[in-house]
């Protein structure tokens, strides 16, 4: 569909699903990842992928020299290296824009940016990793207080919920003993977590996927229900609008994941934005007319963006998260899923299973919400107890 070669920084599960989408469109992909056998490299094994870090300037330059378009499957990349690529390889397009990745990869800068553009947010403030600074943040934002690492955060690793002042030392230790920059957010007792995937073309056209409900467990995404079932029809429209407006404030093409909180009074605030395909958009592979992965590729290659409409009445995505070093509990859920109508099993090909590691997911589609829950029940019952 395109003669352009796409380079992807990062070779995890998102890169793997991008590579699968690329293979359907016969788009050539080169992956940069330290893992020789990284999940994304397994899909297009004949491509000449690069072994190296997406934080290594030289390796990023090597990738740039082999491709026409660069994109990311993770935001924790070396943005200075991308800026250097702009100068050394002016013909290589980078999506989204390096400046967008720079802003988003620092969650405090991201919040400041969204605030400047009048996007709805909970209160937040900068803190130093010291007892005095954290104490004064509790005086302004109250307890409990959500302390967050500004950078390198994922799956809640980098968050600490401070319940009382006596927890401050534990919080500082857990968040890098003063070595990592932090900020604080007011704790929001949300009624639901929502997410909207937004796709933006190189010409600035913006389309959104339906609003979904995400359910987190221990700070990690556990379930995603699409579409969101809620009596207030205007709410979905509002959430999509907030997500689209937020994405419009950033430069560059591609898919963005917008995580939001729905508060008890109906207010919607943005939690964070990912400048790439997102866990809460896995469901789009089976449940939408065009997957987020296909649309990410289409958008960065200036191809027509595909319909983002749901093609099934109900769907749910269940993350398969390691509970120990053994893959067996996950395999049991997958075996069960093979017996369930409408279930699609995705295993990421990660060599080592570890507690808390995302090893795969299952998407279920169904003709009704009631049927969806009937199909989901046996899978949840098979999930190992520490992850159910
Ligand atoms: P990921 O990038 O994998 O989504 P992360 O490490 O960036 O995760 P966050 O999205 O900041 O982490 O937070 C993880 C979860 O913690 C949220 O999905 C939500 O359940 C909870 N959480 C985060 N911030 C707040 C807050 N201010 N108030 C209440 N709960 C919060
Ligand atoms: Mg995050
Ligand atoms: Mg998050």
UniProtKB/TrEMBL annotation:
Catalyzed reaction equations: 5-amino-1-(5-phospho-D-ribosyl)imidazole-4-carboxylate + H(+) = 5-amino-1-(5-phospho-beta-D-ribosyl)imidazole + CO2
EC number: 4.1.1.21
Keyword Lyase: yes
Molecular function terms from GO: phosphoribosylaminoimidazole carboxylase activity
Keywords, comma-separated and alphabetical: ATP-binding, Decarboxylase, Lyase, Nucleotide-binding, Purine biosynthesis
Pathways per UniProt: Purine metabolism; IMP biosynthesis via de novo pathway; 5-amino-1-(5-phospho-D-ribosyl)imidazole-4-carboxylate from 5-amino-1-(5-phospho-D-ribosyl)imidazole (carboxylase route): step 1/1
The keyword Transcription is annotated on this UniProt entry: no
EC primary class: lyase
Record domain ATP-grasp: where: 111-301
Family to which the UniProt record says this protein belongs: In the C-terminal section; belongs to the AIR carboxylase family. Class I subfamily.
Protein name (Swiss-Prot/TrEMBL): Phosphoribosylaminoimidazole carboxylase
Provenance organism: Marasmiellus scandens
Gene behind this protein: ADE2_1
